[in-house]
Each structure stands twice: as C-alpha cells, then as structure tokens.
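Bug #77: duplicate submission created two jobs. Keeping one. Sequence:
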Amino acid sequence: MAKTIRIAAALLLRSDGKTLLVRKRGTAAFMQPGGKVEPGETAEEALLRELFEELGLVAETGDLTFLGHFQAPAANEPDHLVVADIFRLHVGDAEIKATAEIEEVRWVSPQDPQDIIMAPLTEHHVLPFHRQRGASVDD
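Kept job's structure:
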C-alpha cells in the first residue's frame, strides 16, 4: 500500500489568467507551488509558509479560496500518494522568483500548458478542475 503525503498547494493565477507551475531542483515534473503540511499546521498555514519559502510570496489566509481535496501518485517519490488541499490565489502581476529548492518557475495557460512534464496531480486533477470550473466561476 502506498504511503500518503499530505500537502497544501496553490493554483496561483496572474491577471492574464496564466497559472504558475514550479519545478524542484533535480526533478523533471512541474507542479503547483506548495508543500508538506507539518504537524500542528493547518493546510492554509502550510501553504502560506511554503509560498514564502519557495517564492518569496507573502499572502494571507483571507486571500486563499479553497478548491477541494485531490489525490494522485506523487511525482517525485515512488510508492507515495499525494493527498492535497488545493487553494486558488490571485497574485495580480506580482513578480515571483524561484528560491529555496525551486529550480524553475513557469507561467502557463491552464487551457494550453504546452509540452511540459507535469506532476500527475497537476496534469490530471488541478488543471482539468480549473478548466472545467475556473473559467466560469467569478470571484
């Protein structure tokens, strides 16, 4: 049986509708920014901490919109299942840079992310969910 990793991640959206994907150092797959929820943390607290650590992005709990719980095979850890709380966060035109373990950040169109390798959670759950519901949902 696969081990589970509990994470919180963000569907970060820019003013032009593009979403930010990140690639961790030494890996191939792009995914939503975020990370593991530490003991005693809420998903929101973990996400805000990770966004600051990975991207230097400062946000508040009130900025987050909960999208749902998703699960998929982990991209970088064999025999692990990622159980994710996904939140939407509008960042306007904030400049975002990779820090910590993030090697590359890329803004992509959720409708046409081009030919990049994506984590299963991103490719099969988060982006399709956003395409299906995001375009028609007003904040």
